[in-house]
Amino acid sequence: MDNLPIDIGHTGTQQEEEAHDASCESPYINMERGVPTAIMKNPNMTNLELEESLDDDDDNTAIAKTILSSVFTVDGIQDIVGFNIVCFVSLVGDMSRGVFFPTMWPLVQSLGGSTVTLGYSVAAFSFGRILVSPIFGGWSVIYGYKRTLLLSTCILLCGTLLYGQVVKVGRTDFFIFTQTILGFGSGTLGVTRAFVAEVTPTRSRTTYMAMLTTVQYAGFAVTPFIGAIFVNLFNSYDVAFDVGFFSLNEFTAPAYFMSLDRERITAIAPKVKKSSRQLAVDAVAKETTWFGWTVYDAVIFGCMLLSASTKGSIACFETLGISFATSHFDLSNSRAGNIVATCGLLGVFSLLSMGQIAKRLSDIQMISGGIFIMCLGAVSLADIKEGENANSWRYFISIFMIYSIGYPIGHTALIGMFSKIVGRRPQGTLLGWFASAGSMARMAFPIFSGYIANYGDMSMLFYGLTVILGISIVFVLWNKTTLKTLSR
């Protein structure tokens, strides 16, 4: 960062500062607003010498440390090792959903359950996340990221071992219980996102959040390939065996595969930096709405509802994707799982391109555009009747729009915007609640979709999702000015 140009010799107004920031990648530092005396005496001093000199410059220390932090992080990330660790934790956490995806419906059927049971099983995972996400978020502030992530990893390991005993126990309620434990262990979305928010610069926040979301998304959208491999392996070859409490088959193999994962979490202690130009933003945030909330509180709640709508919609496809493919397209479980995994892999490439997309589109445009594509994916399946055996390409295109484009781009941009709106406030707790809102939708939507599939028409479900996503788009576009102001 030593080669970053710093405008030391210019004295300007707030408008000049904003114009500079909008047109230049280098940070604008106004000398009248607190450039350290050391810089004025020796403009060529190194970053380390500048940091050491702050302790001797009492008049400007507070402001100068903020400036120094901004210079250090304007184009990069403070803790690369920690960033890689939390990415790996996110990957493993969501693999506990993705690896089991192709075998979950057949397992529920083998236990004597219905689509309603499947809905409760998928919801149980999110229920576990709802309970612990705010708690883990708060603990990350109090006890630190390392201890919090270590605890969640141990819980996740216990959950996978319990999952391996579901076939032995043979009860659907025990299966739902194990799903809840897995949800406990993977309830670290708020923790990992808070860490990324604290070690990345605001202007690149969405890009780094996209990197984190890439590995998380790969965990549940791409790893169904692994589950499909186990299905083909145990269906094609007689390799299953049963010895005492240990049973290895297409249902338990994914669980034991997950239990082999080990996370080595080193010390994570990011430095907290402060953003600039907050006075105008704070003034807007503190305004009171017509229903008595501040604008900030209303926007935070609105973003959580947006998270619920996108998370809940994809949870419906996660719940009924396999059963819908077999009943309406005559696809096998393994082929449907491969289609979802392929589209999930393409979604990973979309997330890897978020840095370039963010240069051309704003957060508002990415959110509204992503949700609109999800609408198209949902409504494209609404007119297909059971037993029609429609062309499998329609299923692929619908899953492609949702898993490859709509959800990964729209929801990731939403996470980045939410983190920017939170700003310098403690990120762990609020991002924990943000994750809980999504998990609550992942709990409620699968249950409702299971009842609809069992007692009603699937067309009702897809039309309902289209309406919910359409309302979400209206909310974003109606409040785009406020959202843009608070996320600066």
- Number of DSSP strands? 2
| Main structural class | mainly alpha
Mean pLDDT: 77
Biggest sheet strand line-up? 1-2
Low-confidence stretches: 1-41, 43-75, 262-276
Alpha carbon gyration radius: 24 Å
Q: Strand-residue fraction?
A: under 5%
Quick one: biggest sheet? 2 strands, antiparallel
Spatial shape: globular
**How many helices in DSSP terms?**
23
For the terminal residues, how far apart are their CA atoms? Answer: 23 Å
> Could you estimate the helical fraction of the residues in percent?
over 70%
Elements, N to C (H/E): HHHHHHHHHHHHHEEHHHHHHHHHH
Would you mind describing this structure in some detail?
A hairpin with a 2-residue loop joins strand 1 (about 240-245) and strand 2. Residues about 1-40, about 45-75 and about 260-275 have low confidence and may be disordered. By secondary structure, the chain is mainly α. Helix 12 runs antiparallel to helix 20 (about 390-420). About 70% of the residues lie in helices and about 0% in strands.
Secondary-structure map:
Layout: H1 14-23, H2 37-41, H3 47-53, H4 61-73, H5 80-98, H6 101-110, H7 115-142, H8 145-163, H9 166-169, H10 172-185, H11 189-199, H12 205-221, H13 224-236, E1 241-243, E2 246-248, H14 253-259, H15 279-285, H16 295-328, H17 333-352, H18 354-360, H19 363-379, H20 392-422, H21 427-455, H22 458-478, H23 480-486
